[in-house]
Amino acid sequence: MSSTDVLDEVVGSEYKHGFVTDIESDILPPGLNEDTIRFISAQKEEPEWLLQFRLDAYRHWLTMDQPDWAKLNIDPIDYQAISYWAAPKSKDDGPKSLDEVDPKLLETYEKLGIPLAERAALAGVAVDAVFDSVSVATTFKDKLAKEGIIFCSFSEAVKDHPDLVKEYLGSVVPTGDNYFAALNSAVFSDGSFVYIPKGVRCPMELSTYFRINASNTGQFERTLIVADEGAYVSYLEGCTAPMRDENQLHAAVVELVVQKDAQIKYSTVQNWYPGDENGVGGIYNFVTKRADCRGDNAKVSWTQVETGSAITWKYPSCVLRGDNSVGEFYSVALTNNYQQADTGTKMIHLGKNTSSTIISKGISAGHGQQSYRGLVKVAASADGARNYSQCDSMLLGDQCGAHTFPYIEAKNPTAQVEHEASTSKISEDQLFYCQQRGLGVEDAVSMIVNGFAKEVIRELPMEFAVEAQKLLGVSLENAVG
Amino acid sequence: MEKLLEIKNLHAEVGGKEILKGIDLTVNYGEIHAIMGPNGSGKSTLSNVLAGREGYEVTEGEVIYKGKNLLELEPEERAREGIFMAFQYPVEIPGVNNSYFLKAALNAKLKHEGKPEIDAMDFLTLVRDRMKIVEMDDKFMSRGVNEGFSGGEKKRNEILQMAVLEPTLAILDETDSGLDIDALRIVAEGVNKLRSPERSVIMVTHYQRLLDYIVPDFVHVLSDGRIIKSGDKSLALELEEKGYGWLLGEDEAA
């Protein structure tokens, strides 16, 4: 058997989270206009200013075109064919505690391996779970409240902490920032809100799990995390969706506000349904994520493991405004079968002695195509700014592709910007060596790929690192030889 | 003596070209066989065919190992059945911890044998013990597999793997190539310490010098895909003295 045959044979793994939960949902008919937005806002009993925020975003969105600069083939999206609201029906207005959550929902999260109930205590993780458009449960709220930490669904935050939301919403990613961010700002349904007060170190990992269940729906969640002066928080998001033949749109916005001496560590394990082995179905993951280091010595780290989605368009970015602020981006992206990814980061150096690190590891198998796209911008004000970028690509087979688009704009002569890039193939020699030591082909590939991605995986919190390692292996089952 | 490996009339090709043209060889438990021969005689092809490497097509003949048809087994199954190949050029696997790799290999073998996996503490004890055999330092275990190792360090790492995996049949493919005399001594002494009545070794080498350190029971000379002469260790010395031309001439005359 030639190595290409073995490669082909290993491509075509089963998506483990592809089950559909049979649950009664309230779904808004497909279509998007100002009434849709008013409906969503009314459903959530939002204040007038938030409705206005949405409507402004919508009107702006109407004037914009979907971006086409990424190296992606995207089938035209009919925005009128998407339902912008899907919520599991519940007896009352919504679950007040875990006991009130529909057992079927809990079962769904059990299947996903999410420690929603008291098991969470053992893991030391507080979880907010977003099912379609609605946040269903947030664990550990009371314990966190004692520290003054707010961790709740976005809708609750609007009700209970409207001043905080009003102050920070849209302050990092303005409503008209880009096409998908504008759409999200108009129709976002729910998401998570975190506020860590001054000087508080969040005692546990905070985590959100997103799941798309209803068909023909989009998911537009909104996450806002504020770390006040000297605060610290580590936050993780995980994502899954059922297997469906049609593409589903996921356009999220994540805003991080990092004040003086504060730190946010944001980790993502993205495993949205990637489509089948022929490229049918799968999630369009078009996400805007940005962190604003507003004060001196602020630090933000983005760590992402992206194995899912049919198409990924995502550039978690850092605005390094405060002096000595630090931005980090660690990424592993894997594209198999017909998956496409155009992902990377933007590091905007504005403050003095700001530094940024970019470590990007791309793995392509099958007919997968991926691009690293990164911008390092050093403003005239950023004396002593430093950046180090490293972009490595690994190819499995000869039908896939890896591309690197680094952009550097330096307007300050004291800036130091380094960029390294490499492309490698899993060699037959490496595979045979592993086999000769008794390892099966799939285990060998998983091991080699995890070795390649190690610098990024080790940045993840422990329990998620284990999950990410397994995910890399599973996503490549039948992918290589 | 009990047969471990029996090769009968083995023909094999690489890229459509016949390299092995009828090899017959029997290896009993506990024996060390040296396969010598000039470049291009088929020595490495024989090693790779036995290990099951892709691209080496057997066109005729059979190989019986432990009473079973070896050629039906995948490379990893052969490994788990106790065949170990020390590579001429061990590859680097960046980012994969050497110790983790070796433990995974050992556990694959233990699982195949129906035994429980080894726990971390027992494994550490085992590896520390075996590292003495090749005079290796602890620091090599926390590095990537062969990552940044010198030629000698890579070969020592091969013998360490052999010491931990305890194969029934070890194939040393040009293990002496690229080694200075000190590294050669350490590697050879490592192999000698692993000699046992339950373990057989096939040493493939171009030069006689390895045989000064690892003394074989039998020496076979391979030329143009056939074993043209077999003997005891004195054959190697004779070759050293007279060169391969002596035998090749004899072959032509025959």
Describe how the helices and strands are arranged.
The complex is a heterodimer of chains A (481) and B (254).
Chain A: H1 3-10, E1 25-27, H2 34-43, H3 48-62, E2 86-88, H4 103-111, H5 119-123, E3 125-131, E4 134-138, H6 141-146, E5 150-153, H7 154-160, H8 162-168, H9 179-187, E6 192-196, E7 205-211, E8 222-227, E9 232-240, E10 247-250, E11 253-258, E12 263-270, E13 282-293, E14 299-306, E15 311-314, E16 317-320, E17 326-335, E18 340-349, E19 355-365, E20 369-378, E21 386-396, E22 401-410, E23 416-425, H10 428-436, H11 441-452, H12 454-457, H13 462-475
Parallel strand pairs in A: 3-7, 6-8, 7-9, 8-11, 9-12, 10-13, 11-13, 12-14, 13-15, 13-16, 14-17, 15-18, 16-18, 17-19, 18-20, 19-21, 20-22, 21-23
Antiparallel strand pairs in A: 1-2, 3-4, 5-6
Helix pairs in contact in A: 2-3, 3-9, 7-8, 10-11, 11-13
Chain B: E1 3-14, E2 17-28, E3 32-36, H1 43-51, E4 56-65, E5 68-69, H2 75-80, E6 83-86, E7 93-97, H3 98-112, H4 120-131, E8 144-145, H5 151-165, E9 169-173, H6 181-193, E10 200-205, H7 209-213, E11 218-223, E12 226-231, H8 233-242, H9 244-253
Parallel strand pairs in B: 3-10, 3-11, 6-9, 9-10
Antiparallel strand pairs in B: 1-2, 1-4, 4-5, 7-8, 11-12
Helix pairs in contact in B: 5-6
